[in-house]
Amino acid sequence: MAQPEIHQFPCLKDNYGVLVHDAEEGVTLSIDAPDAGAVKRALDERGWTLTHILVTHHHADHTAGIPALKSETQCTVIGPSAESVRIPGLDAGVAEPCSLHLGSLEAKVLDTPGHTMGHIAYWIPAAGVAFVGDTLFAMGCGRVLEGTAEMMWASLQKIAALPPETHLYCGHEYTVSNGKFGATIEPGNARLAERLAEAEAARRDGRPTLPTRVDLEHETNVFLRAATPAIRAHVNLPDGPDWKVFAALRERKNRF
Ligand code: ZN
Ligand code: FE
Predict the structure, then answer these.
(1) For the segment 147-187, what is each residue's pLDDT rounded down to a tens digit?
(2) CATH code: domain of residue 47
(3) For the chain, is the Cβ count within 10 Å smaller at the N or the C terminus?
(4) Could you say which of 115, 119, 167, 234 is catalytic?
């Protein structure tokens, strides 16, 4: 398989759209559809024809563009079967363990509930990329809106267990705010402080801070670092399961 071309572009307030293009087979995927106009412009700039939309979860900032894109391109819309009634125009509902064969690309579906109950991620092992929606963000994670903290922790662990060099594409540009929060939780983490400074510089120049990488997240994402003694001490939970530490961190971030 030739490596697919991947194009990430900002849209709406702080969302990212992503296109994945397999030139050999003429397949182009849109990861979510935050805004039909922005996705169309990105396709037109490259001369790519949309064939599929891969939806991570039902929220409007990930699905609002589906109807217009589908009526214009007759693309196939794939998304979480658990949210099929909430996603407009869904053609195929999928769940783990499902492998999608799209042109020469093979995408594995991962169940990553927590932000929403049916949230899924898409992992293309041969390309070393995963599209994780609103489950993990650079140095952060999504709000636990429908599931439980324990569920969200398990979903984050699943993403953290992907090969370390895997590039992670996330739904939003929240890196600076996440890094500022992380620095209050783990002030002694030099790599985190350095990454926050890099992210601030990137945003000042209007550059994206994404995609991130699994290994970078292990070093700098306090939500994945719940087992770290300094973090446990910081939230007064020296013992007990990691997910409870995660839950305490998520609570604090909600109020940050
Ligand atoms: Zn969302
Ligand atoms: Fe979102």
Answers:
(1) 999 999 999 999 999 999 999 999 999 999 999 999 999 99
(2) 3.60.15.10
(3) C
(4) 115
